[in-house]
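My hope is that you will study the protein record below before we discuss the fold together.
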Amino acid sequence: MPAKKKTSVPPETELYDLAELFKIFGDSTRIRILFVLFDTEVCVCDIAEALNMTQSAVSHQLRILKANRLIKGRREGKQIFYSLADEHVHSIIAAGLEHIEEDD
């Protein structure tokens, strides 16, 4: 049996940043918002309506998600439409969902 290749541990700063990223996913409200944005771009008012939340509460969570580069915004007139930042975010959510739905 061949020896298993040892994975090198990334630098401590990268591990810290990764842990901080996963903390963002640790809030169910932010996960709910990400699911609303999973396949489409949506304005704050529509997110608030879909999740039965105030626009203020949604905006607060959107600021956190945007600061962590998980979502992006596109301005159209006075409204901003939000979407997932890139395919990586989509993949993280999809992989997490697939993982929890697996049978033991």
